[in-house]
Design the sequence.
């Protein structure tokens, strides 16, 4: 319903300011944050980098003890996706930033090797040469045959868009944690099984050795031991030791902290087991007993093997595959989760953000949003997030920023993260986790720093480092505290972050590693070459060009190509605050940093400095100035795109974006409504890009677009569209009668955008019916496509229709007539203007949504205004309440004639929805009026 | 004996009545039912509705299922399966008025067995060995009777108290309680009145004595309705309609029977003699010579009395497709609607506000209002409204006849119709607070509600919930 943010975010503000906006400002929590990068008047679509892959993908790599880092698989498993991208090289990179120490061995004071349940580490890594940025999730799996019993793995979400990774860090982290948890659970299970097998082997070996020793003893009781006997005894001893060790390992793996596996429903099976009998299972060495006591080892009779005395640690043995390491079904589950992640984050960052904002705002409207919103796909994601939510606290991770989880006021905070730029993710998390502690630290260590400034600085610094081509690492782990001091450039960043604050809390109940959230961006020194840089950021440069004459005096294209001395920037950032902001501003302007319109402190600072003389006002105007410029930019880009290599065409292609982004609520087409050139670009580029590369199901986006288009057509074609739409809005069932199924279905789909929902389930729309209708159908469906047939059944259907005529409006497609009550309101004409200038389906769809949102707001007011419905003092005549209602509807809400009925109907639905204990349990009653119908003809 | 014959040759405008079905347009301002709820649970004809308390009712039908509903929300509370055959009678014990007793029983009868369902505390079923399609309850004695080929008397604990000898092969088709511990059983064309004897000092056991046999109907009697102190018998050809109790009828010392050949007979309840007979709609005598009437008479259904109801003054009779209002004081029909429906009217009920509701085989329910109007002698009888008091029995020189000319006259005005069912509406139940429940041969039950009132109630509920959640802020 709230499609407005999509529009607003990319609209020039000065367009808006021309309109006299005297209405009181929205409460803060309802205000729509502007697109974070819009301050530079930037193209909201992803920066185009020289990535060698066509779209985001997930890579799973392993640090093999035999061959080193190697890629295992990608999701989607399609070579077209990653193209010429060097997976091996990238695997090396991502595996080399694993800062978690998975320490296995004999810790001092312990007799036996100790397993550590290591937390995953999450790292963001950038490689500007490759044009690849990655969220990397390291995890460790256990393997009995591996060195130290561990095998390091990582899963990486690789994208060409750095902002995307940074902005979606929380979400990525949550999703990948689920996948990782699933893998690890399966792995623990497999590892336990493996250990038990091994124990049986050892036990068997011991028995055999024991027997042999006995035989030998008997054979020579001469009083001295042969060397052979001694060897046997040694061997026996080592087997004994090995048994104890393995038992201990088994005990450890089984005593895996239950709280850690709690909450992850993927692993629920495992939790049962740990609950069952951890102690007993751990102590059993008797193969029989363990076999029937432990569900894990209930595998068909395992025949123990004799184990050779010398364990073979040679490199020619084949290491287990990932699938073998984890249980097969856990592995497939993980793959499913990963492809879910891939789908979830597919598409442009801008879409992800707006759809997230959209959803977050919608969630706030939980009282009314069910009416016209399409929850089919939104729910899908919501469910996923809610699943992730309970898992979080048990993992000792900073609480998730998950929008759905936040109570309403907090949404503002999460909005802040959108508003601020990429790297602010870091701070964001701290903010929510640390609360007071964070503030304290901030107060002491960063002095008069405003958090917002911090965000900016941080962001600028990051930008600076990237553009400078220096290899800079930002490390947030406690492991990395030593590193921190080295990387001066990030002093300012890390001080407010103050990892210790967070970690000191967590460290008490961690074995070794902590959550490490690390930001690492590496740029090979070749990136210093301006041309290279230029090639990898063509759009950024392009933006500067297109705005060069836009009054932004201090900013020149040259700034972008020859970045300020990295050292300078770094120095500044360490030394003091003003300098920092100064530098950050410079870089921010140049690279498209987050000159957030709301962050006036930063702006004023920059003003004072005079380095960049950008009045805040001006930059604000830029924020929303996208709408106009987009077309131009696109055409620019499209002209450029032939020259620039590695330019991913899909990023330009609106339709492509659409197709690849199921989740987004908006469509690019809307913004390019007036520009025909875009569509031509779209068509050409889609020609170039085979659509097969993006296999997408029937996307709801396309569906909406088509529905909107057909609705537009209907409105233009039929003069009696208004009463028909009024019927739908007022809850009177509209029957679309026709012979041709396709026609009827099309129109039903189109009109379904006007049908209010009962609840969060599917809309009450029946696309095609050929049997006679019953009264219960009218209760259930509000829009029905009915077959007109010549058969007796058909006449029966028509007869039934005329019988129930008081409950229905009938739109006869064949005769082009409509029989329905009179409509004289003003609402529907606004909703469905015959002479509307909207030409695109999806635009119209959004128009409808926003008008309906307004309508819902009215219905909400009407429903929840206490004085309207309850007697104000004591006993009051019913008539008085009725007249109050009527005057409220007419005067306050400005409804005339039949519009009142629409609002009343919606209010009924709201009441029902609100009072229902179990949504969807009770069907709403069929409400109707005894009003005469009229026959409309063309 | 008084006998009125209605619809004779003196009918003033026979031709004008050719299509007399009164219709009402879409605009029905007086029709309060603007909301409906379709209740689905049965998979065969739903024939009976019985009110359990203020908000609950039970439905039963040919599928042998008894379903208990919440009349407010339309929620299905219970579904009870005990019968393998059609349910032929349903009755509650104790009935509505004696609800102080916790353990309310629902008795259902069918050809296979009688089932007693206890609603409190837990719904449970007790199957009975007795067979027989009809039931009656004597609350004063706290016993109930089941009728089949014989008549059995049971107490609440389900002990067989007494049993008559074999009555007839056809069996008792209807059974009703009348005062003085008597019951009337309809056996074939006969009405047999039994007296139940409770154990006293003299006699130790229960007993059932046959008091009188009445043989005045021309056809089989299949159903009876009783009132406290009065008995009304009505006949229906195919099955037992229902049994119910109503207290406040002041028709003293008489009871009324109707048969499917159009006879309405008022019986004196004390000596079981015919007090008055309204042989109203069909008379085989040659006087009925207009074509219209002959046509009408071809189907016995058109003139049979399907149902009637009453209040202090009037008896409302559903005859064929028409509705008649018979005034007990004046002893004549004061208003009628000859073709109130397209086909037979199956059930009528009187609402407190002078409204009458009728349902019919045509699947519609109509709401009528009995309106007074001053009829001048010269004024022609308006279409569709039929006032007839044509023939007075010779034996009775009734004073009413004299007054007739300037009496206050009534008409039945159609004020609304409820269209929902796709098949014959078998019965309906009126709840003061929750509207109207109709059941039909299309297996559905529809709850008709006053939309405005429901809307207000929902609004109240909403604010209650808001208050519970602590979200309600009252403006200062």
Sequence:
């Amino acid at each position: 319903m709230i499609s407005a943010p999509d529009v607003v975010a990319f609209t020039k503000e000065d367009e808006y300011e021309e309109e006299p906006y005297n209405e009181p400002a929205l409460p803060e929590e309802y205000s729509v944050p502007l697109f974070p990068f819009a301050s530079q008047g930037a193209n909201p679509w992803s920066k185009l980098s020289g990535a060698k892959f066509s779209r985001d993908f997930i890579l799973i790599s392993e640090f093999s003890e035999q061959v080193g880092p190697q890629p295992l698989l990608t999701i989607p498993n399609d070579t077209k996706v990653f193209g010429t991208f060097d997976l091996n090289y990238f695997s090396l990179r991502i595996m080399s930033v694993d800062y978690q120490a998975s320490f296995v061995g004999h810790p001092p004071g312990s007799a036996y090797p100790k397993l550590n349940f290591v937390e995953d580490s999450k790292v963001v890594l950038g490689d500007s040469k490759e044009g690849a940025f990655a969220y990397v999730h390291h995890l460790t799996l256990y393997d009995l045959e591996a060195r130290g019993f561990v095998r390091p793995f990582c899963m990486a979400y690789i994208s060409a868009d750095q902002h995307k990774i940074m902005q979606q860090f929380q979400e990525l982290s949550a999703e990948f944690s689920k996948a990782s948890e699933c893998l690890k659970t399966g792995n623990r299970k497999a590892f336990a099984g493996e250990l038990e097998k091994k124990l049986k082997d050892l036990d068997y070996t011991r028995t055999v050795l024991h027997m042999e020793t006995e035989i030998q003893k008997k054979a020579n009781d001469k009083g001295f031991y042969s060397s052979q006997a001694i060897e046997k005894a040694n061997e026996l001893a080592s087997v004994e030791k090995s048994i104890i060790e393995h038992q201990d390992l088994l005990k450890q793996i089984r005593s895996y902290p239950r709280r850690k596996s709690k909450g992850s429903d993927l692993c629920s099976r495992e939790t049962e087991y740990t609950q069952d009998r951890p102690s007993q299972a751990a102590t059993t060495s008797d193969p029989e007993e363990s076999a029937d006591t432990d569900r894990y080892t209930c595998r068909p009779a395992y025949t123990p093997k004799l184990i050779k005395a010398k364990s073979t640690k040679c490199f020619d043995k084949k290491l287990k595959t990932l699938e073998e390491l984890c249980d097969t079904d856990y592995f497939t589950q993980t793959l499913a989760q990963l492809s879910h992640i891939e789908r979830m984050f597919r598409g442009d960052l801008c879409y992800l953000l707006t759809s997230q904002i959209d959803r977050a705002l919608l969630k706030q409207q939980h009282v009314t949003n069910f009416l016209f919103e399409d929850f089919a796909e939104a729910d899908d994601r919501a469910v996923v997030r809610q699943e992730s939510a309970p898992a979080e606290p048990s993992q000792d991770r900073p609480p998730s920023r998950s929008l759905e989880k936040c109570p309403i006021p907090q949404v503002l905070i999460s909005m802040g993260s959108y508003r601020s730029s990429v790297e602010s993710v870091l701070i964001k998390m701290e903010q929510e986790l640390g609360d007071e502690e964070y503030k304290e630290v901030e107060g002491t260590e960063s002095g008069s720093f405003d958090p917002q400034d911090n965000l900016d600085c941080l962001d600028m610094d990051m930008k600076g480092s990237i553009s400078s081509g220096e290899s800079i690492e930002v490390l947030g782990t406690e492991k990395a505290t030593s590193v921190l001091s080295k990387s001066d450039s990030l002093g300012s960043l890390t001080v407010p972050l103050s990892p210790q604050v967070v970690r000191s809390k967590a460290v008490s109940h961690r074995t070794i590693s902590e959550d490490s959230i690390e930001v690492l961006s590496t740029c090979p020194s070749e990136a210093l070459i301006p041309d290279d840089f230029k090639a990898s950021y063509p759009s950024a440069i392009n933006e500067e060009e297109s705005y060069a004459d836009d009054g932004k005096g201090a900013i020149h294209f040259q700034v972008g190509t020859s970045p300020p001395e990295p050292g300078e920037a770094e120095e500044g950032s360490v030394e003091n605050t003003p300098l920092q902001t100064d530098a950050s501003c410079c870089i921010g302007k140049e690279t498209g940093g987050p000159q957030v319109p709301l962050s006036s402190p930063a702006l004023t600072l920059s003003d004072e400095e005079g380095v960049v003389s950008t009045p805040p006002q001006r930059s604000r105007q830029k924020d929303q100035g996208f709408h106009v410029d987009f077309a131009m930019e696109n055409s620019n880009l499209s002209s450029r795109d032939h020259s620039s290599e590695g330019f991913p065409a899909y990023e330009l292609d609106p339709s492509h974006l659409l197709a690849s982004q199921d989740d987004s609520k908006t469509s690019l087409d809307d913004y390019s409504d007036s520009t025909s050139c875009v569509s031509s670009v779209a068509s050409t580029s889609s020609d170039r890009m085979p659509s097969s590369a993006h296999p997408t199901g029937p996307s709801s986006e396309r569906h909406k677009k088509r529905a909107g288009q057909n609705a537009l057509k209907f409105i233009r074609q039929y003069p009696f569209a208004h009463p028909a739409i009024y019927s739908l809005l007022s809850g009177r069932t509209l029957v679309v009668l026709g012979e041709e199924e396709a026609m009827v279905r099309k129109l039903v789909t189109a009109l379904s955008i006007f049908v209010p929902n009962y609840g969060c389930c599917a809309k009450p729309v029946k696309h095609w019916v050929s049997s006679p209708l019953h009264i219960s159908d009218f209760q259930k469906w509000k829009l029905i496509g009915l077959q007109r047939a010549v058969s007796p059944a058909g006449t029966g259907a028509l007869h039934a229709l005329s019988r129930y005529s008081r409950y229905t409006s009938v739109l006869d497609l064949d005769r082009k007539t409509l029989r329905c009550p009179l409509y004289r309101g003003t609402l529907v004409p606004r909703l469905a203007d015959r002479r509307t200038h909207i030409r695109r389906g999806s635009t119209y769809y959004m128009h409808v949504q926003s008008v309906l949102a307004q309508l819902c707001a009215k219905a909400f007011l009407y429903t929840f205004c206490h004085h309207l419905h309850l007697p104000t003092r004591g006993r009051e005549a019913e008539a008085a309440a009725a007249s109050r209602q009527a005057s409220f509807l007419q005067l306050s809400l400005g409804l005339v004639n039949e519009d009142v009925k629409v609002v009343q109907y919606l209010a009924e639905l709201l009441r029902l929805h609100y009072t229902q204990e179990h949504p969807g349990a009770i069907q709403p009653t069929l409400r109707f009026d005894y009003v005469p119908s009229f026959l409309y003809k063309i | 004996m008084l006998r009125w014959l209605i619809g004779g040759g003196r009918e003033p405008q026979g031709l004008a009545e050719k299509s007399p079905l009164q219709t009402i347009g879409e605009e029905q301002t007086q029709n309060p039912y603007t909301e409906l709820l379709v209740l689905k649970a049965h998979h065969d004809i739903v024939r009976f509705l019985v009110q359990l308390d203020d908000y609950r009712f039970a439905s039963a039908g040919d599928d042998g299922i008894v379903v208990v509903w919440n009349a407010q929300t339309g929620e299905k509370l219970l579904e009870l399966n005990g019968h393998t055959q059609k349910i032929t009678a349903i009755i509650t014990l104790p009935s509505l008025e004696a609800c102080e007793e916790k353990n309310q029983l629902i008795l259902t009868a069918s050809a296979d067995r009688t089932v007693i369902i206890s609603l409190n505390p837990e719904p449970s079923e007790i199957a009975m060995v007795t067979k027989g399609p009809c039931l009656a309850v004597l609350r004063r004695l706290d016993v109930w009777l089941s009728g089949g080929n014989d008549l059995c008397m049971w107490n609440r604990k389900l002990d067989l108290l007494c049993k008559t000898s074999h009555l007839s092969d056809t069996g008792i088709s209807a059974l009703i309680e009348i005062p003085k511990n008597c019951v009337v059983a309809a056996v074939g064309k006969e009405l047999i009145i039994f007296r139940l004897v409770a154990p006293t000092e003299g006699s130790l056991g229960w007993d059932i004595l046959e008091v009188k046999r009445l043989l005045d109907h021309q056809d089989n009697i299949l159903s009876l309705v009783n009132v406290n102190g009065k008995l009304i018998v009505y006949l229906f050809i195919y099955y037992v309609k229902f049994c119910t109790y109503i207290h406040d009828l002041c028709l003293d010392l008489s009871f009324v029977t109707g048969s499917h050949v159009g006879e309405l007979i008022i019986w004196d309840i004390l000596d079981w003699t015919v007090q008055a007979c309204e042989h109203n709609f069909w008379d085989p005598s040659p006087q009925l010579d207009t074509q219209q009437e002959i046509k009408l008479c071809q189907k016995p259904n058109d003139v049979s009395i399907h149902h009637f109801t009453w209040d202090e003054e009037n008896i409302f009779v559903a005859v064929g497709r028409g509705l008649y209002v018979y005034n007990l004081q004046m002893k004549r029909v004061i208003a009628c609607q000859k073709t109130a429906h397209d086909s037979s009217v199956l059930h009528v009920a009187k609402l407190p506000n002078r409204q009458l509701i009728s349902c019919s085989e045509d699947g519609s329910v109509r709401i009528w209002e009995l309106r007074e109007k001053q009829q001048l002698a010269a004024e022609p009888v308006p279409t569709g409204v039929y006032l007839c008091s044509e023939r007075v029995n010779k034996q009775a020189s009734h004073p009413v006849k004299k007054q007739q000319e300037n009496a206050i006259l009534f008409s039945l005005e159609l004020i609304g119709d409820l269209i929902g069912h796709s098949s014959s509406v078998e019965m309906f139940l009126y709840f003061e607070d929750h509207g109207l429940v109709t059941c039909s041969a299309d297996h559905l039950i529809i709850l008709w509600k006053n939309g405005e009132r429901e809307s207000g109630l929902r609004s109240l509920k909403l604010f209650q919930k808001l208050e519970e959640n602590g979200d309600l802020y009252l403006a200062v």
